[in-house]
Amino acid sequence: MPPLAKSVAFNGCQSIISNGAGVGGGLPSYLGVAVPQKEPQQDLDRIVKVRCGMQIQVVAWINGTPGGTANSLLVTVSEIAGDLRAAFAAENYLWQLKSAQSNQQLKNAQQQAAPTF
Amino acid sequence: MQIGFRTMAASILFAAGFVGQPTLAQTAQVPAGPAGGVIASKLPDAEGVHLGMSVAEATAVMKGLFPGAGLQVLYSHYLNGPTFVSSMKGQSQDQTDNLSVFFSMPPNPQQVTFLQRTMIMPPGKQPTEANTMAGLRQKYGKELTNTKPGSGIFGWAYDEQGQPASPQGPENWNPADCANQMVGVAGGQPQANSSLEVNAILDPIPLAQELPGLIRNLCNRNVFVTAQILASSIQGTPVVNQMFVYLGEKPLALRNSVAGRQYLEGQATAKQQQQLKNAEQNKAPSL
C-alpha cells in the first residue's frame, strides 16, 4: 500500500457523494433529494473542489483515552474519484432520461391535433 | 325554491303554456335582431351546437355528442307557469369534455344564448398552444387584438349575422369578458316537476330602471366568443392542460330577457289589478 499523500483528517474535505455525506457538495438527483436537473458548471466545480482532489481516502477513527488504550478502531477507505465518476455518470443518465421523456412529451404535443371546436 | 330572473337561464317551451302570451314589444333602445330573426347556422358554435338554435335543434346535436347518461337536461318554470327546459349539460365518457348549453326563457321562442365548454387535456393528449390557437383561428377566425395580451384569454366578436366585428370601448373594457356574462338564463333542476321558480317579482329593480344600464353595456351589442387557455411549458413550448370556451349571443339574450321580464311584470300587474277588482266588488261586511 502506498503511503498517504497527505493527511486529510479534519481538514474540511468532504468524502464520497453516494453515502449522502455532505449533501451541500452532492448531486441532488443522484442522492434522490431532487428531480434530475442540469448541474451548472459552478456546482460541478464546487463538488469536485470540496473533495480536495482526493482519489482514495482512508480515515481511521480511534476511540480511547489519550495515552491509554484504544477500545475501538474504525477505518473507512473511500474511492472518491470512482464515486465522483459514478455519481456524475448516474446524474447524466438521469438527466438524459428526463430529457428524453421531455422530448417525447414535446413531440407528442406537437403531433397532437387541437381539439375539435 | 325561487330564483331571481337576472341570474337565470333558458329552456324549452313545453306544451302551449305560453302561446298567446304577450311577447317583447321591441323597445327602440334594445338591439334589434336581424329581420326575420337570427339564423343559427350563421352564428358561432361549439361542437355543432350553434348560438340561436332552438331547444329541439340543440337537443338533437347534444344527444349525438353525449349519448345516454352523458347528457343532463335541466328544467325551470315561472311561478304557476309551465315547465321549460332551461339548460343542458353534456359530459364525455372520460369526463374530460364538458359542454353546457343555456336557453333563453319564454315567452319568446327559446334559443341558445350561451354555451360554456370546459376541456381537460390528459397527459399524452395535450396539444401545443400553437396548435390549439391554429384550431381556434380556423374555427372562429382571427382573434380580437384589444383583449388582455399575454393572459391566455382570447376573444372574438361577431354581429348577429355571424360576420366578424371589432367592437371598441374604453381602455378598461375587455371584449373577452363579455361571452361569459350570462343574462336571462337559469341553470334549472334535473326534475321537470321541481319547485325551482323563475320569478321576476323577486327582482327588486324594475325592468324600466334596469334597462338603460343593460343597453349601455357594450357587451350586449355583439355575439362574443372567449377562449381561456391554461398551459404549462415543455422545453419552453407552451402545452395546453385545460381550456375554457364561452360563447354568448348577447343581443338575443337581452331581447329575450327583456321579453321575459315584461311578461312576468305584466303577470304581476294583472294579478294586482284582479286583486283590486275583487276587493272593489266585495261588499262591506254587515255592521
Radius of gyration of chain A, whole Å: 21 Å
State mean pLDDT of chain A (0 to 100 scale): 79
Please work out how many helical segments of chain A DSSP would assign.
2
Secondary-structure-derived class of chain A: alpha+beta
Oligomeric assembly: heterodimer
Structural domain count of chain A: 1
Number of domains of chain B: 1
> What string, H for helix and E for strand, traces the elements of chain A in order?
HEEH
Helix content of chain A: 25-40%
Reported for the largest beta sheet of chain A, the result is: 2 strands, antiparallel
Percent helix of chain B, as a range, is: 10-25%
Strand sequence of the main sheet of chain B, in spatial order?
A: 1-9-4-5-6-7-11-10-8
As laid out across the biggest beta sheet of chain A, the strand order is 1-2
Number of strands of chain A: 2
Global morphology of chain B: globular
Strand content of chain A: 15-25%
Structural class of chain B: alpha+beta
Please give the count of helices of chain B.
4
What is the percentage of strand-forming residues of chain B? 25-35%
Features:
heterodimer; A: 117 residues; two-stranded antiparallel ribbon; 2 helices; elongated; B: 287 residues; alpha+beta; 4 helices; 23% helix
Helix-strand blueprint:
The complex is a heterodimer of chains A (117) and B (287).
Chain A: H1 41-49, E1 56-64, E2 70-79, H2 80-111
Antiparallel strand pairs in A: 1-2
Chain B: E1 2-3, E2 45-46, E3 49-50, H1 55-65, E4 71-78, E5 83-91, E6 97-103, E7 112-120, H2 129-140, E8 153-158, E9 197-198, H3 207-216, E10 223-234, E11 237-249, H4 250-281
Parallel strand pairs in B: 1-9, 4-9
Antiparallel strand pairs in B: 2-3, 4-5, 5-6, 6-7, 7-11, 8-10, 10-11
